[in-house]
Write a structure and sequence with these properties.
alpha/beta, Rossmann fold, seven-stranded mixed beta sheet, 5 helices, about 35% helix, about 20% strand, globular, binds guanosine-5'-triphosphate, binds magnesium ion
Length: about 200
């Protein structure tokens, strides 16, 4: 898919206020600082469409972007960010879970995982929650530029093995990406196009 047009639509803290549009949407979710906003900019080939930051907790709202006038891309706040208060953290959790439970137009969630880290309980718990709600998701490994080619393959295999050793009978679709090199862009856009 070629992205000819990408524009910011609106930010919301409540799912009820999200666009009423029935257009299909794809959500990007994961721990804070995993690279969600950077990946969105890489996919859209726009440097500052979604706001990025070296400090975790940058994206705090549900952000809708309209792509090619026919689908929405959604940048969600990161979960598991330790430096926000317990109350705020609960707030994130709530609007994230509300988003997934209420947005019927959500076609697929991309759960982002920093390729350098061992499987984290919060990511495994989030994927398990998606599974119990029968919500479709795929895994996107981010920051692959930080590892050598050999290390990428063994790390991803180890991650998928962890899923298989846990609650999963088969591994979800998965992608290896780097927002700095553009790795995985064609695969991800092709996958979205197939689901549209
Ligand atoms: P929150 O909005 O805070 O939840 O974070 P986020 O998941 O949107 O992360 P963001 O895109 O803001 O990126 C966080 C940091 O990681 C920034 O310093 C980025 O430059 C860096 N980063 C993101 N993607 C990549 C990547 O593919 N490679 C490298 N080397 N750095 C990356
Ligand atoms: Mg962000």
């Amino acid at each position: 898919m070629r992205i000819k047009d990408a524009r910011f639509v609106v930010s919301n803290s409540k799912v009820a206020q999200c666009p009423k549009s029935p257009l299909p949407e794809f959500a990007f979710i994961g721990r804070s600082n995993v690279g969600k906003s950077s990946l969105i900019n890489m996919l859209c080939a726009r440097k500052r469409l979604a706001k990025t930051s070296g400090r975790p907790g940058k994206t705090q709202l549900i952000n809708h972007f309209l792509i090619n006038h026919n689908w929405h891309l959604v940048d969600l706040p990161g979960y598991g960010y330790a430096r926000v208060s317990k109350k705020e953290k609960k707030e994130f959790q709530r609007y994230i879970t509300d988003y997934f439970l209420e947005r019927k137009q959500m076609v697929n969630a991309f759960v982002l995982i920093d390729i350098r880290h061992e499987p984290q309980p919060i990511d495994l718990a989030f994927m398990e929650w998606m599974g119990t709600k029968e919500l479709p998701f795929s895994i996107v490994f981010t920051k692959a530029d930080k590892l050598s080619q050999n290390k990428i393959e063994s790390t991803v295999q180890k991650y998928l093995d962890t899923l298989l050793a846990g609650v999963w009978e088969e591994v979800p679709p998965n992608f290896i990406t780097s927002s700095s090199s553009g790795l995985g862009r064609d695969e991800l856009l092709g996958y979205i196009e197939k689901l549209l």
